[in-house]
């Protein structure tokens, strides 16, 4: 297959409506904050009717916002998604060297996660070089209320926000020691918030987690140390590991602007 045939084949896989939708979003800039549907159609070289459904879909999804009868600006979805991505990327870049150093000091695995609704989403792991280790891949989602890092992520919410988040979530489907009711969850998270860390045992392993804070004092992520019970269960070991974990928390939070 020659280069021309290869290019034609790749073109066949394109989705014209998606391509036009992304092109429309790319038309907005600091100089041009508001565009009409006819502006979009003219720049795409198509009729207004050809972009009507695309624009309406972008409005319905929050990527565009109608500001007049035939005028649109970028919607909050673009801004929130963009800042969420940048914040997550910054957190990983800032946290990575600190978690690697923590792993080297303790010989335990370290993980970093953020909250996505009721899930704890794993963004980074520093894997310990020992045979018995806790290894949770990047991209894994685990229920917040049943994990150490997840519970620390939930400490960023107050009692009302917790109730709203878990309004339609069944908690009694999860095995103990996960909380089984909303009041139980609220009490647990209040205690976690006061203590500033969570120790959680499961499947012959133990995890110690704490929260990461940004320049506004908001919980933006969580980190943990995790390893086999044989290493983690003695009070002295837990005390030393917790001390190292909290020092790492302070270093990462400090780079994010937390006082």
UniProtKB/TrEMBL annotation:
InterPro entries: GAF-like_dom_sf, HTH_MetabolicPath_Reg, Tscrpt_reg_IclR_C, Tscrpt_reg_IclR_N, WH-like_DNA-bd_sf, WH_DNA-bd_sf
Keywords for this protein: DNA-binding, Transcription, Transcription regulation
Domain (HTH iclR-type): residue spans on this chain: 15-76
SUPFAM superfamilies per record: GAF domain-like, Winged helix' DNA-binding domain
Keyword DNA-binding included in the entry's annotation: yes
Presence of keyword Transcription regulation: yes
Domain of life per record: Bacteria
Domain IclR-ED intervals: 77-258
PROSITE patterns: HTH_ICLR (PS51077), ICLR_ED (PS51078)
One Pfam entry name: HTH_IclR
Organism: Pseudomonas benzenivorans
Name the record gives this protein: IclR family transcriptional regulator
């Amino acid at each position: 297959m020659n280069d021309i045939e290869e290019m034609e084949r790749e073109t066949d896989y394109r989705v014209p409506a998606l391509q036009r939708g992304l092109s429309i979003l790319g038309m907005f800039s600091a100089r041009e904050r508001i565009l009409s549907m006819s502006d979009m159609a003219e720049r795409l070289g198509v009729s207004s009717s050809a972009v009507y459904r695309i624009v309406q879909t972008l409005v319905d999804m929050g990527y565009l916002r109608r500001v007049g009868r035939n005028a649109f600006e970028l919607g909050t979805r673009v801004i929130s998604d963009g800042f969420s991505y940048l914040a997550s990327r910054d957190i990983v870049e800032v946290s990575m060297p600190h978690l690697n150093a923590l792993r080297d000091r303790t010989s335990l695995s370290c993980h970093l996660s953020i909250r996505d609704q009721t899930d704890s989403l794993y963004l980074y792991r520093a894997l310990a070089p020992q045979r018995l280790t806790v290894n949770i891949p990047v991209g894994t989602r685990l229920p917040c209320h049943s994990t150490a890092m997840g519970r620390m992520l939930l400490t960023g919410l107050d009692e009302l926000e917790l109730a709203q988040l878990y309004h339609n979530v069944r908690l009694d489907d999860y095995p103990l020691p996960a909380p089984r009711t909303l009041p139980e969850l609220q009490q647990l998270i209040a205690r976690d918030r006061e203590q500033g860390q969570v120790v959680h045992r499961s499947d012959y392993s133990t995890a110690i987690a704490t929260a990461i804070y940004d320049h506004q004092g908001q919980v933006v992520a969580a980190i943990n140390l995790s390893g086999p019970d044989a290493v983690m269960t003695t009070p002295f070991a837990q005390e030393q590991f917790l001390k190292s974990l909290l020092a790492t928390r302070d270093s990462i939070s400090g780079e994010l602007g937390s006082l």
